[in-house]
Design brief:
single chain, 179 residues, mainly alpha, 9 helices, 74% helix, globular
Length: 179
Amino acid sequence: MMQRFFKLFLKNEPDAHKIALLYGAIMAQARREDFFIRFGLSDDFETRFESLILHILLVMRRLGREGQAVKQSLMDFMVSDLDRTLREMGVGDVGVVKRMKYFMEGFYGRMNVYDAALGSMDKKEMLRALDRNLYSATSTDLAKLELMQDYIEMQTKALEAQPLDDIMNGIISFKSIEV
């Protein structure tokens, strides 16, 4: 009886399977080996996290206001996945809490910086954001930064061309990376 009562309020909650599909597609794109090679990124935990943030931001921007519930579920899924990953790496409860706090502060900070840069259409602002975050583990290479900026524009356009309902149902595709 009580479950039926709560289901009335949770009708708009996205299907967990669809969120898992969406997160899986984002994660797969963010971790592609050719992505790291093509853009001269170091393949380490921090840079993988930076790549995940960038790709989630692109999808969240596409979801817009209509996709608020999906965006929240996607965030929840990411937090659970990061927590699980840290535990699998042998990090204890106290360490997980500290690292999750660090990750989430970084996540929201970067989301704001990237979102502002994309919103302003200021290419220099985006180059600075990429240099400070995604490329923080490597020396600055303007050509690689500009290549990444082109990739972001390409993926933004590709996501805009996809039906919102498809994305909200976990069906998403990213443009291929030319190595």
